[in-house]
Amino acid sequence: MRGRAFAGVLNEGDRVRAHGRMRSGTFRADRVESLTTGAEVRAGGTPGAVLVPACLFIAPVVAFLAWGAYGLFTMPSGPGWDRP
To answer: Which DSSP string corresponds to 27-79?
Structure first.
């Protein structure tokens, strides 16, 4: 089970029931239920409400850095570059 955060606790030796699906020969659990304690563990991902603003912030920063790198590498240099 993968996720940025997990809600719930499992202990070593707990008997569990996993809920999920098979994908390319690998079982991918999205929820695990402890039959010993009745606890449930879920994997949490990054919510879309966080991803969209992060992308909207990161895209202009990357564009600005690319523009600066382009200007740095295409600027003429050396003696006499400013003469007609």
So the answer is: EEEEEEEETTT--EEEEE---HHHHHHHHHHHHHHHHHHHHHHHHHHHS--ST
